[in-house]
């Protein structure tokens, strides 16, 4: 009995583009969840509404980048859009950290 040979993987044309689109949508979903929680927290405790707005705007930028990735025609363009989406997540996280900082400052002053 002969050993079975490994099957060669078929490459999927546009596979990298599909991964980039999925990655961009993951970034957009991450930013959206962060925007939702930041907005609620900011409103509930009446702190850093400008930073909460910045988180929402970053989530919007991430969503627009995900849509741009979908409409891209090349792998490179899709990955560039995914990087933009993740950059928006970084901005959202920074603004969210400022909200937390404002809450800590408020608690320390109490």
Please supply descriptive tags for the structure shown above:
elongated, 110 residues, 81% helix, mainly alpha
Strand-helix topology:
Blueprint: H1 15-45, H2 49-71, H3 75-109
Helix pairs in contact: 1-2, 1-3, 2-3
Task: Explain what you see.
This protein is mainly alpha-helical and 110 residues long. The protein has one domain. The protein has helices spanning 15-45, 49-71, 75-109. Helix 1 runs antiparallel to helix 2, helix 1 (15-45) packs parallel to helix 3 (75-109) and helix 2 runs antiparallel to helix 3. The longest helix has 35 residues, at 75-109. The termini are far apart. The model has no long low-confidence stretch (mean pLDDT 89).
Put the structure in a nutshell.
The chain is mainly alpha-helical and 110 residues long. It has one domain. It has three helices and no strands.
Query: How many H/I helical runs?
Result: 3
The H/E string reads HHH
Terminal residue distance: 79 Å
Which descriptor suits the 3D outline? elongated
As for the number of domains, it is 1
Q: Largest beta sheet, briefly?
A: none
């Amino acid at each position: 009995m002969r050993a079975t040979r490994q099957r060669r993987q078929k490459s999927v044309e546009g596979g990298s583009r599909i991964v980039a689109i999925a990655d961009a949508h993951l970034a957009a979903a991450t930013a959206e969840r962060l925007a939702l929680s930041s907005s609620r927290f900011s409103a509930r405790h009446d702190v850093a509404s400008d930073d909460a707005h910045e988180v929402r705007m970053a989530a919007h930028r991430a969503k627009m980048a995900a849509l741009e990735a979908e409409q891209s025609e090349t792998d490179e363009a899709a990955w560039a859009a995914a990087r933009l989406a993740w950059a928006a997540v970084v901005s959202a996280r920074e603004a969210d950290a400022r909200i937390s900082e404002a809450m800590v400052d408020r608690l320390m002053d109490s």
